[in-house]
Amino acid sequence: MSNGIGVLSFPGSNGDTDALHALTDGVGAPARVIDHRETDLSGMAAVVLPGGFSYGDHLRCGAIARFAPVMAPLRAFAARGGPVLGICNGFQILAEAHLLPGALLPNQTLRFHCFWTHVRFDGLPTAWTGALAAGEVLRLPVAHGEGAYFADDETLDRLESTGRIVARYCDPSGAVAAAANPNGSARGIAAVANEAGNVVGIMPHPERASDPLIGGADGLRLLQSALDFVHAAV
Amino acid sequence: MAEGRWMVEVIVMPKEGVNDPQGEAIRGGLRALGYAGVRGVRAGKVIRVELNAAGADDARAAGAEMADRLLANPVIESFHVAAVAPVGVEA
């Protein structure tokens, strides 16, 4: 599978090693970490932007990472339809880079939230969710201070009507309820996709739900989806 | 006119309708201090940029462009250039 799946690493990324581990040991995908100064993503099958605090979260989360050298080839990769997943800070970077709509605001509670959540996948299939059944509920952990998804009502309506709300926070039974929304996200949104469905941003951490030993392995379902997508495209 | 050094002050604020938990927390603090009349608080940021420009208008325009492209995120924030002042003339 070409050069496999690339995990971008920015100064301040801290989920890169976990993402690499989940990809290689979790679903057996060839993968490597790609430094933010690299400028060539040709040959990569998929790209993950991991969580962390790139550039110290200065100015706004993800605002500075957008200018890293690797972002130009990432844009081209996304435009070609290459699968891109932004996890947590990676989601914030994709929003700041306008590769995904909306923005992530400070949690309504003003607290850093670090716990397990349930998320329900309802949107149209994407490169990262093809292995999931419609309405499937996964148990994934969140770890963020700025995870409240925001977009204007027109954008939210458009995302909803076009099936681009990939996942929402829900209770364990799968009911999307205000009490299950940990951060004040608009419409309970935990993940969104771009128009083509190849770029997805998600606040919960699939790579941290990669082994029953650490509390759950539901996150592998997303990574497996990308692997299936890549194999199907070959 | 010779190029000079200018200070441009940009104020970035959360847009109306955008939740501002920081402002809410400050409001709670002010009320705890006894300011019962405080109705609302919005918290933004002030960014001062020192730059070389041909004049005040150029400096203002450059500051506004920087704010639009990076200092503010137009999805959630509004901005305005609050001040433009000469810092000194380059030798």
TrEMBL record, chain B:
Look up the signal peptide feature and give its range.
none
According to its UniProt record, where is this protein mainly located? cytoplasm
The compartments listed are: Cytoplasm
User: What's the catalysed reaction?
Assistant: N(2)-formyl-N(1)-(5-phospho-beta-D-ribosyl)glycinamide + L-glutamine + ATP + H2O = 2-formamido-N(1)-(5-O-phospho-beta-D-ribosyl)acetamidine + L-glutamate + ADP + phosphate + H(+)
Q: Which Pfam families match?
A: PurS
| Gene3D superfamilies, per database record | Phosphoribosylformylglycinamidine synthase subunit PurS (3.30.1280.10)
Enzyme class (EC, first level): ligase
Pathway, according to UniProt? Purine metabolism; IMP biosynthesis via de novo pathway; 5-amino-1-(5-phospho-D-ribosyl)imidazole from N(2)-formyl-N(1)-(5-phospho-D-ribosyl)glycinamide: step 1/2
Q: In the Enzyme Commission scheme, what number(s) does this protein have?
A: 6.3.5.3
Quaternary state and partners of this protein? Part of the FGAM synthase complex composed of 1 PurL, 1 PurQ and 2 PurS subunits.
Q: What does the sequence similarity comment in the record state about its family?
A: Belongs to the PurS family.
According to its UniProt entry, what is the function of this protein?
Part of the phosphoribosylformylglycinamidine synthase complex involved in the purines biosynthetic pathway. Catalyzes the ATP-dependent conversion of formylglycinamide ribonucleotide (FGAR) and glutamine to yield formylglycinamidine ribonucleotide (FGAM) and glutamate. The FGAM synthase complex is composed of three subunits. PurQ produces an ammonia molecule by converting glutamine to glutamate. PurL transfers the ammonia molecule to FGAR to form FGAM in an ATP-dependent manner.
UniProt-recorded name of the protein: Phosphoribosylformylglycinamidine synthase subunit PurS
